[in-house]
């Protein structure tokens, strides 16, 4: 897996450097295509990670909602980072910062039910004393 990623990235960077001066639009296209290919390689090998997480959740009797929320937040982080860095590569740093902000707000919105549960637990603990 890592050799494939290394090969794709090295080839893409080489082509992008050559094309950047003459055809910057093709350079961007090569960059996006190579990013998608690398992501496909990474996500195709993602199932062992999910299986390990499932085993841990089942063995510790954890609430699936919390694990799903954490995995969704992690996905939002990765997607936001990729989109933000792509915007920066194209020279649009102001759009990049808006993408970062949107990702942070999305994670806050996603985690609101967990915060509500935490507050309920804290209320119960306070009333016990």
In short:
This protein has helices at residues 2-22, 24-44, 47-60, 64-89, 93-128. It is mainly α and 129 residues long.
Keywords:
2 domains; about 90% helix; mainly alpha; single chain; about 130 residues; 5 helices
Describe this structure in words.
The chain is mostly helical and 129 residues long. The protein has two domains: 1-45; 47-129. It is built from five helices and no strands. α1 (2-22) packs antiparallel against α2 (24-44) and α4 packs antiparallel against α5 (93-128). The longest helix has 36 residues, at 93-128. It is elongated. The mean pLDDT is 88.
Number of strands: 0
Q: What percentage of the residues does DSSP assign to strands (E)?
A: under 5%
Our measurement of the CA-to-CA distance between the termini, rounded to an integer number of angstroms, reads: 54 Å
Largest beta-sheet characterization:
none
Mean pLDDT across every amino acid position: 88
Structural class: mainly alpha
Order of helices and strands: HHHHH
Low-confidence stretches: none
| Overall domain count | 2
Please specify the SSE layout and strand pairing:
Elements: H1 2-22, H2 24-44, H3 47-60, H4 64-89, H5 93-128
Helix pairs in contact: 1-2, 4-5
């Amino acid at each position: 897996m890592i050799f494939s990623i290394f090969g794709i990235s090295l080839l893409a960077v080489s082509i992008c450097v050559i094309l950047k001066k003459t055809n910057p639009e093709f350079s961007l296209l090569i960059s996006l295509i190579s990013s998608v290919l690398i992501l496909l390689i990474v996500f195709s090998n993602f199932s062992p990670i999910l299986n390990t997480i499932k085993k841990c959740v089942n063995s510790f009797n954890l609430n699936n909602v919390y694990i799903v929320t954490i995995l969704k937040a992690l996905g939002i982080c990765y997607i936001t980072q990729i989109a933000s860095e792509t915007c920066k590569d194209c020279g649009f740093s102001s759009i990049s910062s808006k993408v970062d902000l949107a990702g942070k707000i999305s994670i806050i919105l996603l985690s609101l039910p967990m915060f509500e549960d935490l507050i309920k637990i804290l209320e119960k603990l306070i009333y016990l004393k």
